[in-house]
Amino acid sequence: MNEELRIKVHLVGSLGSQLMTKIDRECLKALLNKKAKVLARGGVNHLRFRLRSIFSLAVSEGVVERNPAVSLFTPSDASRAARSSC
Question: What is the mean pLDDT of each run of 10 residues along the chain (86 residues)?
């Protein structure tokens, strides 16, 4: 799966049409916990990295005041073996 499709499927598809200003750390934490049940650990790590990057750009562009993804961690129950492709 390429990067654009991964973001559309796993991030945009999950967050829907929520405004970035309404997305908080708990929302992102819940998203990663949900993804940890169906994706390999590497896939969840990649999503976490992308969330940090997306929100960092949003901060630098003045879209949001702070980055809610900055202190996110990969859930401990994320599998080390692939459960599905990401």
Answer: 88 92 96 93 93 97 96 80 38
Task: Please give the model's pTM, rounded to 2 decimal places.
Answer: 0.84
Which range of residues forms the domain containing residue 38? 1-86
CATH at residue 63:
1.10.150.130
C-beta of residue 28 within 8 angstroms of C-beta of residue 69: yes
Q: How far apart are CA 9 and CA 66, in angstroms?
A: 24
> Within a 10 A sphere around the Cβ of 74, how many other Cβ atoms?
18
CA 61/CA 28 separation, integer angstroms: 20
DSSP class of 40: B
Domain count, the chain: 1
